Amino acid sequence: MSSNPPEATASAIPLRPAKVAAESATTSRPHPKPVIPVPRLRFECKDLTHPGALVFFSTTNPTTVLSDAVTVVLQTLYILFEGNAAVPPTRSITLILRSMPGVAYTTGIDLDDDHKEIHFSLDYIAGIKNTSSSPQRQRQEIEGVIVHEMVHCWQWNALGTAPGGLIEGIADFVRLRDALGPPHWKKVSGGEWDAGYQHTAYFLEWMDARFGEGNVIRINEALRDKRYDEKHFWRQLFGKSVQDLWSEYSRTIEADDSEEGILVEKYVDDDSDRKVKNKSEMEMRALDRAPSGFV
After folding, report:
1. Contacts of 45 (CB under 8 A, 6+ apart)
2. How deeply is 29 buried, as exposed, middle or buried, from its count of CB atoms within 10 A (0-12, 13-18, 19+)?
3. What does the buried/exposed string (b/e) look like for 109-125 if buried means 16 or more CB atoms within 10 Å of the residue's CB?
4. Which contiguous run of DSSP H or E holds residue 95?
5. How many angstroms separate the CA atoms of 294 and 164, rounded?
6. What string of pLDDT tens digits covers the 295 residues of the chain?
7. pLDDT of res. 24
8. Which residues fall within 8 angstroms of residue 80, CB to CB, at 6 or more apart?
């Protein structure tokens, strides 16, 4: 018998299950999904026999169009996370289809402004026509108007002092980002930056390209809890006056269109198409009457 101790033998190292190994290799937590507030969504149609109702129901699912509009608006205007106090506390949104002049408007109910109503004209819907060049025109226009009005349920307005044209421009910016702009929309140089609607929306789109994604989020946030002061508002955000920014934008689109051989349309500011100066005027232009809220 040998007095030498037995040689040590290597024991097999047990293999860790592949799933466990993969989990331990992950050293960082995945990014949380955006937390999207879910308000109560309601729908009313005042006249099911109206031609506009027939167009609406043949092209649109009310549940889908409302929930999708909430999602696209909040993802465009906010950085979403749980407990984000920057998002307004909107608790319910009711889409009401009825016969009325104009297109649409949004308002809060008298007892509680956190409950919103979007009123959408059945007469306007009835007049939307599909064409050979735009076979989905009815659906896209209905969705586009609802997205625009949904913005008014969630955006800030500088304690009621923001220019009406900026408020409307932000709403159409979101519509533009969701690829729901109608065929007649186009960039126009000249005029006033806050003429509103697509005129201002394209300006905001240019600023997002010029200064980086997320600048409309910054603009909306800056309108949250302070009164609007044009002299300081834009300089604090972009280091320039809004007039300087607008001039740069106008020169840019004129140069771009000249390179492509396109004749640039000049904006003409006259009595029939002047800039939106305040909310009341904005509503009068969209409706034959002026309800409370935004168009």
Report:
1. 53, 56, 96, 97, 98, 122
2. exposed
3. eeeeeebbbbbbbbebb
4. strand 92-98
5. 9
6. 555 555 555 444 444 454 444 444 445 555 556 678 889 999 999 999 999 999 999 999 999 999 999 999 999 999 987 767 789 999 999 999 999 999 999 999 988 999 999 999 999 999 999 998 889 999 999 999 999 999 999 999 999 999 999 999 999 999 999 999 999 999 988 899 999 999 999 999 999 999 988 999 999 999 999 999 999 999 999 999 999 999 999 999 988 765 554 444 454 444 434 444 444 344 433 433 333 455 6
7. 44
8. 34, 35, 36, 74, 87
Amino acid at 295: V
Question: Would you say 208 and 216 are in contact if contact means Cβ atoms under 8 Å apart?
Answer: yes
Residues 6+ apart with CB under 8 A from 82: 32, 35
CB atoms within 10 A of CB 176: 21
Give the phi and the psi of residue 120 in degrees, each rounded to 5: -125, 130
Torsion of Cα atoms, 247 then 221 then 227 then 210, to 10°? -10
* CA 96/CA 99 separation, integer angstroms: 10
**Alpha helices (H) in 187-239, listed in sequence order:** 197-211, 215-222, 230-238
Q: Confirm if 74 and 259 have CB atoms less than 8 A apart.
A: no
Task: Read off the tokens for 265.
Answer: 């349309």
The answer to pTM > 0.85 is no
Tally Cβ neighbours within 10 Å of residue 82: 7
Contact 142, 53 (CB under 8 A): no
Alpha-carbon span 189 to 203, nearest angstrom: 10
* Residues pairing with 41 in the sheet: 93
Q: What is the DSSP letter of 30?
A: P
276, two tokens = 């939106």
